[in-house]
Amino acid sequence: MRRFKSVLHLVVAVLGILGTQPAQAQDAQLSIMTGASTGTYLQIGRDLGNLMQQCGQSLDVVESAGSLENFLAVRQRPNTQFGIVQSDVLEYMQTFAGNDPAVARAITGVRIAFPLYEEEVHILARRDIAGLADLAGKRVAIGVENSGTFLTASLILSLAGVEPAEKLLVAPADALPQLKADQIDAFFYVAGAPASLYTEGDIDPDRFHLVPIQDPTLQAVYSPATLAGGTYDFQPDPVELVAVKAVLMTYEYDPARNAYHRASCKGVSDMAALILTRIETLRAEGHPKWQSVDLTDIPPGWDVGTCVNRGLDPAYQLSCPASAAQAVPDSEANEAYRRSICAVIGC
Predict the structure, then answer these.
(1) What is the reported pTM?
(2) CATH value at residue 267
């Protein structure tokens, strides 16, 4: 665990700017922090925005650097009730909460709305880099600070005992052209497959490939995953990787506190009710990653928000305008599904 400290000291420095409460306003608009334009987070956020729009409500979908920025924004940015983050961000912060008051303050009130999907750790590299160990002495882009890619890449390299010659703070969208121009040797990107950066990136399979991640230590810390052959045009064969779960994060709003908390709590409850009752719509019309979402698979260390459970209550009244699309009555199968979720997360 000592290997994590150098990375987490950077996180602590960022978290030091946080107060103990999120910014407050008299009224609450709803927004969700997502990710870069080429990433899966943004597409998932847009799917949720469309879902809220069906209920006559507005959800501002905000691009960001990724998980760390999203975590900070839910804690500090006005009118920001949701963020999509990697589940390991909270886990590693909690590991050091007892030793650093800034981290302890930052994680106070953080809650999960729903677990989402597994995000594969992509390492695109030159063909001569056969495995993770071959990144030693190379020029490797690990994402920008405040991104989940940065945190996970740093931790993976540390756990594996691999020391590149250069660890460059470059976003994946900027790293791809640099890789093609031989300015770097490889870059990390943590994103749910298929990630548009790779589907639209015109990548030469004779020059580049996805590096397999088969380290036993990493497979114990993260979820082993296999990327199916043909997921990307340049990748005809299956690739063994590791993955980390993405979650929809929120805050523990207290409706009795003030108007902002009441409005934010209602927005969180409405979102929870919509996701629960229209998950099949998201699977049918949204990003392919919705197909693998298991709403009962809450990662360790995360607690479900009170306002989320309020929206999951079968008696909750979702205040959609009459002109908006209404949820159809549950089938017997859906009722069983609802009961299963409630048994786990306590509706």
Answers:
(1) 0.76
(2) 3.40.190.10
